[in-house]
């Protein structure tokens, strides 16, 4: 990947480990949150449930990568279906929460790691899921990263990106006027057609599967399935 990818990854690690750690811990739990964050929580739950529904119900014997696992909710549900799961996230702090929250019934079924989800040393998987990680990157970086993940997925890759809606584009434009110290890592809206075209050039052997958008209040994200089998 380009130096821009590495620079953004470092910034995301700093953001989730320092600036947003408490807020993210609350958002991914049952703790009270603001009305705005409640819509984000609901949207993320809807998206997570949809991505899980795109995987086989019985995952016994399957190896799953939760690429950008955060506090581990999707990884835990996949393990409960019988999968052997690797959950990796750029933030060591979020990984510590994931380990702490992992229930006893998935102990030995989920391995949580801090690092780069594109690290080839992680090996190959039957299915790879990356939820709301690539929303922070430009279309060319998303396509390259997704192609790299798809090459390590024996059956499918599912990832999400920020669609180029007027609301998201306006929010990004307004955010440029915030002081740098107050800015979160920007969500970068991209065109679905542009992304599909770039991905097809990066990995022509893969086939595009289902795609669907989830919008709940202040949460908007678009899921894309890539079939590799």
Describe this entry's structure for a reader:
- With 229 residues, the chain is α/β, with parallel strands linked by helices.
- The chain has a single domain, classed as Vaccinia Virus protein VP39 (Rossmann fold), CATH 3.40.50.150.
- Helix content is 41%, strand content 22%.
- It contains eight helices and seven strands, in the order αααβαβαββαβααββ.
- The chain has helices spanning 3-19, 21-27, 35-53, 73-80, 92-101, 139-150, 166-175, 192-202; strands spanning 63-67, 84-89, 110-114, 125-130, 153-161, 207-216, 219-227.
- A hairpin with a 2-residue loop joins strand 6 and strand 7 (219-227).
- Helix 1 (3-19) packs across helix 2 and helix 6 crosses helix 8.
Cα(first) to Cα(last) distance is 25 Å
Please name the CATH architecture: 3-Layer(aba) Sandwich
Ranges with pLDDT <50 over ≥5 residues? 177-183
Query: How would you sum up the major sheet?
Result: 7 strands, mixed
How many distinct beta strands? 7
**Cα-atom radius of gyration:** 17 Å
Topology:
Layout: H1 3-19, H2 21-27, H3 35-53, E1 63-67, H4 73-80, E2 84-89, H5 92-101, E3 110-114, E4 125-130, H6 139-150, E5 153-161, H7 166-175, H8 192-202, E6 207-216, E7 219-227
Parallel strand pairs: 1-2, 1-4, 2-3, 4-5
Antiparallel strand pairs: 5-7, 6-7
Keywords:
seven-stranded mixed beta sheet; 229 residues; single chain; alpha/beta; Rossmann fold; 22% strand
Give a brief description.
This protein has helices at residues 3-19, 21-27, 35-53, 73-80, 92-101, 139-150, 166-175, 192-202; strands at 63-67, 84-89, 110-114, 125-130, 153-161, 207-216, 219-227. By secondary structure, it is of the alpha/beta class.
